[in-house]
Design brief:
There is one protein chain. This protein has 10 helices and 10 strands. Helix content is 40%, strand content 14%. 42% of the residues are buried. The strands form 3 sheets. The chain has a 5-stranded antiparallel β-sheet with strand order 1-2-3-5-4, sandwiched between helices. A 3-stranded antiparallel β-sheet has the order 6-8-9, covered by helices on one side. The longest helix is centred in the middle third of the chain and has 21 residues. By secondary structure, it is an alpha+beta fold.
Length: 314
Amino acid sequence: MTAHRQQHTAYWTRYFADRGHEGVRPLAAGVEGAVHLLGDGTVAKVWSGRRPAGVGLVRQVYEDIARQSASLPFVTPEILAVEEHEGVLVTYERELRGVPLRADSAVVAPERELPARETGALLTVLRGLAAVPGTEAMRRLTVQGDDRPLWDGHARFPDALAALVLRAVRRHGDLLAAQVPDLAAVVRRTTESLVALSDSQAVTVVHGDLVPPNIHVDDAGAPTAVLDFGFFTTAGDPAFEAAVTASVWDMYGPHAEWHTVTLTRLFAAELHHSPDTLALYQRAYALSTYDLFSSDGGDGHFRWCAGLLRRPAP
């Protein structure tokens, strides 16, 4: 599959060393940027896409989440300083302790059996985030690949998500239609079902990208930190978070579909979400993100989205 993680470079290592940080070393790299450990309890994130004009909103969202820190069993990022260097955004954040829950399935394929240590950590994180109220700043965020705040013009999360699906399909829908039979009907059923959802959903923070490397744990497997908000962060239904997490926990391993089904059932039972609603949100996520990494369908994420959309709806 095609890799879509940013690369650490010697240029940025020298840049931070020249600014007085000793022992600079690469820490992690993801879709939005590359993170460098600075050795003084802080990290620097070199962003790949978000322009400096939007960092104030991201900082506010981080602060909104941090206000709930006393009730969370893990910590979340905090932006300490911001700078722009030659048009590139750099944020300085506190270092978050712990180690990744597991490697990404694109790097190391997980075994078929789901360890209780990992499912327990996922449930702890989902319950914790579901207790963080959605805020106005979260509603003003733009999710990856879109050109406007997700909630713009909408009072309900399902309606905002339905509108996002329609915008996303207009980008490269012909490409997706070649892989998903009767795509127009899939889109119609998905958007109509979203709009038909009741108004009973809570509105909480949605991380939107709880892949295993974005959850840090201690030696006992308990979550210590949740990081890398931003890819699909918004205010929304906590069932959406659960649905996406069940899908992205393992996207590329040989047992990926089995893991999605198993986690979806687990989250429905433990978190009291409707299985049909979880499946609906999974289709909406696939329709919204299928083309984020290429416009020719040649990447693994596109194939994963198309495969999910080909599955029969419950």
